[in-house]
Specification:
The chain is an alpha/beta fold and 491 residues long. The protein is built from seven helices and 21 strands. It folds into two domains: 51 residues, no CATH class; 309 residues, Leucine-rich repeat, LRR (right-handed beta-alpha superhelix) (Alpha-Beta Horseshoe). Its main location: secreted.
């Protein structure tokens, strides 16, 4: 780097003294650009990013001999420039060549060359900055941990994030990112922890997500739609949280195939329908199973007795009918069982006995257990549902997608073609009027209807206000460096 810097005046002088007219007019900035390209070629970046895949504008006055720190400097300066609010001056010391001294930056010896330092962690959690994530973030190929939790980032996650070859942990939660699921994240080869909860992502969840060897997947509190992919049975994750979205359809039977690893399964507050598959009982390692706040129907399967390690089982606020199985209430590890706000009519004595226990809670209010219990629904409220229970043995097994295909719209008939009126018979030639006959104008041509208007461009939401001071709870079952975002109602 220092060699290029010292050769710059000589290079500019030589170029300006050239006899070529095109070279003689070369400015110092243009000559500096040549030096920059040479620097990039020396770092192996010029060919890596053809056609300005990532715009490179390295400050030639910064003397950084370590090529890994040089590219990290470029990325961090681009990130700083992309911020329009930094009320706590978090990036105030992001100046000069000592990248490893920047706030939030942790350097370690490179795994590729122990004699060189590399930026391994960028932790901006709760910095309260506002801005967007620039595409130059993809230059940080040594980065293993990227924490952006609890800021005011907006816009989209750039596709260049796929270039972060060492990224292991991505926490972009509690921001205002928008758009569909960031598919480029699925191309990060070593990613294990994905947390994009509390944003404004929308659209379907890609089936490829659950095929990746992720250990933790947090997508809750977005606006994801469609159904749960059948590939969820292939997941190796210990934690899957999809709560507070707009997911519909049913829970695939393949969920039982995730028994070896799944520890926490949280799908609360969506629009899931159908029956709870008996394969759920195969999740013997699950400690948390929460499908509350959906539209699940039918009976509670006794097969849930297979959840031998479950500590929290929440089936509340659904449309379940029938009994609360004795086998479920007898689960030894179960500390919190809730079946409230359903249409259940009976419960085993083992379930009622939980109400007197100090360490085992049981919630069964707002069901249809009879008028002798003041916390139950009225007979008028129960009758429409209880009299027409769903027989899960006759319900079509859940696949994905579970929604019916949208019928194609009827083809609009072509517009009628106007027929010109018949021509009048020709008049006999007149010796007085010798003017030639004038042909009638051609018939009008009916134009096809105008095309439908294009949808308006997406409106990027303004960044959210700074997060309030809250107590951050631990992530139970899986430990990571990044804390979860503030605990909003319902995960």
């Amino acid at each position: 780097m220092g060699t290029f810097h010292s050769l710059l005046p000589l290079l500019v002088s030589a170029l300006l003294s050239s006899s070529s007219p095109s070279v003689a007019t070369l400015t110092a900035d243009e000559a500096a650009a040549i030096v920059q390209r040479q620097q990039l070629a020396a770092l192996g970046l010029y060919d890596r990013h053809p056609n300005d895949h990532v715009h490179i504008d390295i400050d030639i006055d910064i003397k950084i001999t370590n090529p890994r720190l040089l590219t990290a400097h470029k990325a961090l300066q681009a990130l700083k420039d992309a911020l329009y609010s930094d009320p706590n001056n978090f990036t105030g010391n992001w100046v000069g060549p000592d990248v490893c001294a920047y706030n939030g930056v942790l350097c370690v010896p490179s795994i590729h060359n122990a004699s060189e330092s590399a930026v391994a962690t960028l932790d901006m959690n709760a910095a309260d900055v506002a801005g967007y994530l620039p595409k130059e973030i993809g230059l940080m190929r040594d980065l293993a941990v990227l924490h952006l939790n609890s800021n005011r980032f907006c816009g989209v996650i750039p596709e260049e994030i796929r270039d972060m070859a060492e990224l292991y942990e991505l926490d972009a939660s509690n921001n205002r990112f928008v758009g569909p699921f960031p598919a480029a994240v699925l191309e990060v080869p070593k990613l294990s922890y994905l947390d994009i909860r509390f944003n404004d992502f929308d659209g379907p969840i890609p089936p490829e997500l659950f095929v990746k060897p992720y250990d933790a997947i947090f997508l809750n509190n977005n606006r994801f739609t469609s159904g749960i992919p059948e590939t969820i049975g292939k997941t190796k994750a210990t934690v899957i949280v999809l709560a507070n979205n707009e997911l519909g359809g049913c829970i695939p039977k393949s969920i039982g195939e995730a028994a070896a690893t799944l520890d926490q399964f949280v799908f609360t507050n969506n629009s899931l329908t159908g029956c709870l598959p008996v394969e759920t009982g195969l999740l013997a390692n699950a400690a948390v199973f929460d499908v509350s706040g959906n539209e699940l129907a039918g009976s509670i399967p006794p097969a849930l007795s297979g959840l031998s390690k479950v500590e929290q089982l929440d089936l509340s606020r659904n449309m379940f009918t029938g009994d609360v199985p004795r086998e479920v209430c007898e689960l030894l590890a179960l500390a919190n069982l809730s079946v409230s706000y359903n249409f259940l009519t009976r419960e085993a004595a083992e379930c009622s006995a939980r109400n007197g226990s100090m360490d085992r809670s049981f919630h069964d209010e707002a069901n249809c257990m009879g008028q002798s219990r003041p916390t139950q629904r009225s007979a008028d409220e129960c009758a429409p549902v209880v009299s027409h229970p769903v027989d899960c043995t006759k319900v079509k097994p859940c696949g994905w997608p579970s929604v019916e295909p949208v019928p194609k719209p009827a083809q609009r008939p072509p517009p009628p073609v106007a027929t010109p009126p018949p021509l009048p018979p020709p008049s006999p030639p007149s010796s007085v009027d010798a003017r030639p006959l004038v042909s009638p104008p051609p018939p009008p041509i009916l134009s096809p209807p105008p095309p439908l208007a294009s949808p308006p461009p997406p409106v990027f939401s303004p960044p959210p206000p700074p997060p309030p001071h809250v107590v951050v709870p631990p992530v139970r079952g899986t430990k990571y460096q990044s804390p979860p975002p503030p605990l909003f109602p319902g995960y």
